[in-house]
Amino acid sequence: MFQDEARFGRMVRIRRCWAQKPERPVVCNGYERQFLYVYGAVSPLQGQLDWMIAPKMNTDFMSKFLAQVSAKHRRDFIVMVVDGASSHVAKDLIVPKNIGSMSFRVERDVTPRGTRARLSAARQGRTEKPAGA
Predict the structure, then answer these.
(1) Three-class SS state of 106
(2) Mean pLDDT, to the nearest integer, of 3-26?
């Protein structure tokens, strides 16, 4: 199974608005942020999806999610592929016996400088070198 989580929510941002002269709208300048996190794991071969909604993303909720997946698939041994998030590799993470995890880290782009610009130019039919290459 492949696991990841996502954050959903809202961030209130003050924007311009229209008002008749001489009115001037009064707006409180406080930022409001409300988020929910969705943990999900998918098995592409079996077409199965497990998910959980949580108020936070941390090691405790990751442990709860793994327990939920473990309980649903009691007879299976699951290899859970996770990214390198801190809550996935923490020492406090409780991993059920029927789940083995395999983590990977997404490395930053290590493309040599200018290669991306040359590839873009080649796609557009140009052959000149970009500035600074």
Answers:
(1) coil
(2) 81
What is d(CA 132, CA 55) in angstroms, rounded to the nearest whole number? Answer: 47
Distance CA 60, CA 105 (A): 21
Lookup: tokens for 101: 């995890």
pLDDT of residue 119: 47
pLDDT, tens digit, 9 for 90 and up, residues 36-66? 999 999 999 889 999 999 999 999 999 999 9
φ, ψ (nearest 5 deg) of residue 75: -85, -5
H-helix or E-strand containing 18? none
Q: Is residue 24 part of a domain?
A: no
73: three-class secondary structure by DSSP: coil
Q: 62-111, pLDDT tens digit by residue? A: 999 999 999 999 999 999 898 878 888 788 999 999 998 777 765 555 55
- Are the C-beta atoms of 93 and 123 separated by less than 8 Å? no
pTM exceeds 0.90, yes or no = no
Residue 55 to residue 69: CA distance in whole angstroms: 18
Domain tally, the chain: 1
| Domain range for 78 | 2-13+31-107
